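Help wanted!
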Amino acid sequence: MKSNRIVITVVGKDKVGIIAGVANVLAKYNANIVDISQTIMQEFFTMIMIVDISKCTVDFSTLKQLLDQCAQELQVKITAQHEDVFHYMHRI
Amino acid sequence: MPVTFGADEILETIRMIEAEHLDIRTITLGISLNDCSGSDADAIIKKIYSKIIKYGENLVPVAEEIERDYGIPIINKRVSVTPLSFIAALKDEEEYIKCAHAMDRAAKEIGVDFIGGFSALVHKGFTKQDRLLINAIPAALSGTERVCSSVNVASTKAGINMDAVYLMGQKIKETARLTADRESIGCAKLVVFCNAPEDNPFMAGAFHGVGEPEAAVNVGVSGPGVVLKAIEQHPDADLGTIAEVVKKTAFKVTRMGELVGRAASERLKVPFGIVDLSLAPTPAVGDSVASILEAMGLERCGGPGTTAALAMLNDAVKKGGAMASSYVGGLSGAFIPVSEDAGMVEAVETGSLSLEKLEAMTSVCSVGLDMVALPGDISAETIAAVIADEAAIGMINNKTTAVRVIPVEGKKAGDRVEFGGLLGSAVIMDYKKIDASKFVVRGGRIPAPIQALNN
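Answered by r_m:
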């Protein structure tokens, strides 16, 4: 992987503290949020983050596990994928 | 750094994976066994085992790493090797069976689900080795778990080797008998080809062709569910528009194959071979090629209009996919493996899809009569005649066709059989009980067709 940016998406029922919860995990392990957008779609909270993990203190698979834990606590669904997936699919 | 994706694009990708069954069907590592050749069985077994382990040991960990990084499921990890009849000049069938067991052990050791290459290419005639290997197929497939076998019996340039066709009819029956206690499942690992491709990543027909490099990564994608959802969003569009929708969707699906193929090639330090532009269904509801045809406006797959709808689908998949990948190969087209496609199974069950219609469909799509369960009482001669028909379609139309039929011992038309997992379940298809044995037992070779006057 040439770039070290991942895309994190969070979808779930809206409640207090979703952004804080996810951002906390990222901050704790030095993953830098480059961009964030959030909206409510049909009652569902939808957040998309672009995150730079080049200085992250844990590897990607550990970070994914930590985000999974966070998703369980917040009762939302979190996916984390390398940004190349979106580059390949949507850009020529 | 500017953000380059819209939220809708990101969510579209995630929806394809989570809700519409988008996945990478297989990463298949092709490994040449050219340097393992010889005539001493024990030496060959030792060499092929250690070579498969050497090249293949990182395949599964790398595939899992890619799955994790990109969040896209990779369903199967497989290995294909040089057709065994090319490299092993063994003295009897027993020795070929031993080689199959060695391949099976190696596949198990590295954790791949299938290994292809217990194969022979006999479209013009048999070598001594070809004949021994083919005779060993039933025992090799019934005694191993992961070994797949394929035999090329015809080609556009050579014609159809009818002796081989008849022999394969007999071997399919024998394999069915030897695995009778498991719904004749051995036949699901045996493919008879016309114009077999050398870089096909899909099982059971994968082998590493003679023109291939030392090793190569080939990828097969899947995405009927994604295409189905895209078509459903255009209930009243004309067919030109539908073709356009399929093209765009196929492009996106194939891009995932390209990404995964390149990543696997880089991490395994093995050249990237090809992406197979496939539309491979799974038994999961909504991941069906039959459902796509029905979404286009057919009441049921198998009825009038099916061949035309499938032809358009197949062509649009290729057009979209060809643009998405730098190297395209393998079988490339919509697959219609009956037992692996819930919509096809339903069409058989309701009587709308017959063997004859299926045969017509295979003339416009990849790849042939695939995973078709037949009654156990069908004769070797009738199976051979079905193979000959299918090979003729491939030979004349300059395309790959294949036959993977399962004459399930003890079952009759209309019975249901469970093969399990991705192989799905099937309803036994009926066949026309009209005798072709005199034609089949004549043997010999059907000459290669003329190519210029092509009507």
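OP: Thanks! One thing I noticed: The domain at 5-90 of chain A is CATH 3.30.70.260 (Alpha-Beta Plaits).
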